[in-house]
Amino acid sequence: MLGVALFTALIGGCIYKLITGLRSVRWLPGLRVPFAPMSLFGVLVPTYWWNPGSKWSWEWRQTNFMSHKHEIISIVPFIWGRPAYHVGSLNAIKQILEAEQRRTIKPRDLMVPLLLWGENLISSNDEMWKRHRRIMGPAFSLSTLQVLNKTWNQLEKAMHNLVATRKKELDALGVGGERPDDGVFTRLVSELDEDAKHGLDKGEVIGNTFAMLFAGHETTANTLTATFGFLALYPEHQDQVAAEIRAVLGDEDPTLDTLSALPILQACFYESLRFFPAGVTLTRDVLEDISVTVSRPSHQTICLEKGSRIIIDMVGVHHDPNVFQDPESFKPERWHNVPEHLVSMFGLGPRGCIGRKFAVTEAMCFLALFLRDWEVDIVLQDGESREEYKDRVMTKAGMVGLAFGVGPITLQVSKRS
Ligand code: HEM
């Protein structure tokens, strides 16, 4: 008897949760699931047909968003987690992100892991975000990137000088002294201001240092892995890239000018990033109603209500066949002549990636120098075709460290003739 009562209460609870959830997203069509994908159980329970789990965005990418017939869907859990709007179209994210100031904030509960070392640019909102962005912005300006203009030899010399200078500084400071540094960190420290009215307090300096490592390292590294993987898989693209690098760089070291004259290489990098968007999930809580005009499933305006949660699925957005024709194919040419501000894998609007220029410059520099001298090829298993290799290796993706990307790839490298 007690069992029946408990069971009835449980079912009743689920129905109540489902109905209130559906009401909160205004009955927008979508998935009705036991656990919200971004909740604790949503992550712990693996992806099955009945549970989206943490891998649904990638594993269901071809059929997600109701086979991309909807630009925005709702995911409403009936056991655990909060209902949310899931956005999978470029058109919709443009409308949400480009005018987002004051209309949305980063959800505080989802930012907890990022706050481990203190408030930072990624986690902060409102006035605090403005202060952090104003301080961090100049560290990523073009003039800062000019440092990459130095030739390889100059870099080597600079490194020697740096070591010598550091040695002198450390000797002068003695044990336990404060240690000056160059670059973003120096900028952060120079803005140290314990009241944190205009500058940053110590926690924020540390928080932002961590944020740079968090946001800047594995994102670029994973995209480089994917770029090498695709170029090894498709030698015709690699040959074009190598010819371009030879023609533009010759035997010279890259400069900002020559790096920007490598559109074929850049397109390969962007296409790899489209395939595996390293910043895979962008989250927002809605502060003011947002109207988004969509054309799928029909032309209509969807109101994302104040108090609701938005989850932007960057895999969904960048594998949408309505925008990226034949999305499962590697087609770098789709990025030829696309203006920088339309490269959506770095986010859009005021909260777009602050490190975008840095990441692209760093990656292009590495790719250009490597591929000028070395050829990469895939390692096939016995009797395996290149197409089978693609399915085995280049469609396995997930979180690699703190960013999304393809798993480990084994390549063979030989000297370019
Ligand atoms: C391929 C490399 C990278 C990709 C794909 C990438 C992607 C993104 C995306 C999609 C966002 C927007 C997040 C949102 O709207 O919620 C973002 C923001 C951010 N990125 Fe990157 N990123 C990359 C490299 C870097 C690097 C190298 C750094 C710094 C060294 C960096 C630092 C940041 C920071 C601090 C933010 C937050 C900006 C703000 O909220 O104002 N990223 N990134």
Structure description:
This protein is α+β, with helices and mostly antiparallel strands and 417 residues long. The protein has two domains: 2-119 and 282-311, no CATH class; 126-279 and 322-415, Cytochrome P450 (Cytochrome p450, Orthogonal Bundle), CATH 1.10.630. The mean pLDDT is 89. 35% of the residues are buried. It has helices at residues 2-24, 40-44, 56-59, 64-68, 90-98, 126-136, 142-145, 152-173, 184-190, 202-233, 235-249, 256-259, 263-275, 314-318, 356-373, 386-393; strands at 30-35, 72-80, 84-87, 104-105, 281-286, 290-294, 300-304, 309-313, 374-378, 397-400, 403-406, 411-415. The longest helix has 32 residues, at 202-233. The chain is globular, with a radius of gyration of 24 Å. A hairpin with a 5-residue loop joins strand 6 and strand 7. Strands 1-2-3-8-5-4 form a six-stranded mixed sheet. The structure holds protoporphyrin IX containing FE. One of its GO terms (molecular function) is monooxygenase activity. Belongs to the cytochrome P450 family.
- For the record, the count of structural domains works out to 2
Classified by CATH, the class of the largest domain is Mainly Alpha
Order of helices and strands: HEHHHEEHEHHHHHHHHEEEEHHEHEEE
Query: What hetero molecules are bound to the protein chains?
Result: protoporphyrin IX containing FE
Number of strands: 12
**Helix/sheet category:** alpha+beta
Rounded average pLDDT? 89
**Rg, Cα atoms, Å:** 24 Å
Low-confidence stretches: none
CATH topology of the largest domain, which one?
Cytochrome p450
Number of helical segments?
A: 16
Distance between the terminal alpha carbons, to the nearest Å? 80 Å
